[in-house]
Design a protein that fits this description.
With 237 residues, the chain is mainly β. It has two domains: 125 residues, Jelly Rolls (Sandwich); 96 residues, Jelly Rolls (Sandwich), CATH 2.60.120.10. Helices cover 0% and strands 56% of the residues. Strands 1, 13, 14, 15, 16, 17, 18, 19 and 20 form a nine-stranded mixed beta sheet that branches. Strands 2-3-4-11-6-9-12 form a seven-stranded antiparallel beta sheet, with no helix packed on it. A hairpin with a 3-residue loop joins strand 2 and strand 3. The radius of gyration is 17 Å and the shape is globular.
Length: 237
């Protein structure tokens, strides 16, 4: 098993006042040649947006874009005709495909919203743009993995145009949990949203991450109650 830790303090940062964004991979004006992607995972931005502010309409193409609110709600509008609110507990995905325009604003005028925006390189290029959003029960991820994004159209997750799987878990202190790949040979980007965990003898704290490859399963020991996001992706050449 190969592992590589990215400490929270090693992320890029862009603070525009209304937006405070931490970048796990090169994005916008922040560039690090050693942090371009992890397999098909291209972007993981940890964004905090002040009340009433947000991103005006802008285009994307040929990218799978996942938004996961951690605190607060987002008002979303896009060129597929979607116009709605994404709340904490929801997971949203857009397959940009041949091209899509969207805007995202804090749905509150007074409270901050904190959300993860994640970009995955697609399996198939130039598909018809699509949008999907689902609400997931936090109780259903207690001490176990809850799959929220996958290419399996028959399960309860949102569909993605890639052999990628997103799983969330809330694990209590002293529990040991195992992650097993859904696709043999994939890598896993393990992002610690909250808490403290240990993998392969190395300790992760809040917002630390670990790149894990060459292993189809691994063990995570929880040292303090933790919220985890596992992003399983193909390891592109």
């Amino acid at each position: 098993m190969k592992t590589k830790i990215q400490k929270a303090s090693e992320r890029g940062n862009a603070n525009f006042g209304w937006l405070n964004s931490n970048h796990s991979f090169s994005f916008g004006q922040w560039y690090d040649a050693a942090k371009m992607n992890f397999g098909a995972l291209r972007v993981l931005n940890d964004d905090v947006v002040t009340g009433g502010k947000g991103f005006g309409a802008h285009p994307h193409d040929n990218m799978e874009i996942v938004s996961i609110p951690l605190k607060g709600s987002l008002a979303h509008k896009d060129s597929t005709g979607t116009d709605g609110i994404i709340k904490t507990g929801d997971v949203q995905i857009m397959s940009a495909g041949t091209g899509i325009k969207h805007s995202e604003f804090n749905a509150s005028k007074t409270e901050e919203v904190n959300f993860l925006q994640i970009w995955i390189m697609p399996k198939e290029q130039n598909i018809k743009p699509r949008y999907e959003q689902k609400t997931f029960s936090v109780a259903d991820r207690k001490n176990k993995w809850q799959v929220v994004v996958s290419p399996d159209e028959n399960d309860s997750s949102v569909w993605i145009n890639q052999d990628a799987v997103f799983s969330l878990a809330h694990i209590e202190k002293d529990v040991v949990i195992i992650y097993k790949n859904k696709f043999s040979g994939n890598g896993v980007y393990l992002f610690l949203i909250e808490g403290e965990a240990e993998v392969n003898g190395e300790t992760l704290h809040k917002r630390d991450a670990m790149e894990i490859s060459d292993a189809d399963e691994f063990e995570i020991k929880i040292n303090a109650d933790a919220d985890l996001l596992a992003i399983e992706v193909p390891m592109l050449e």
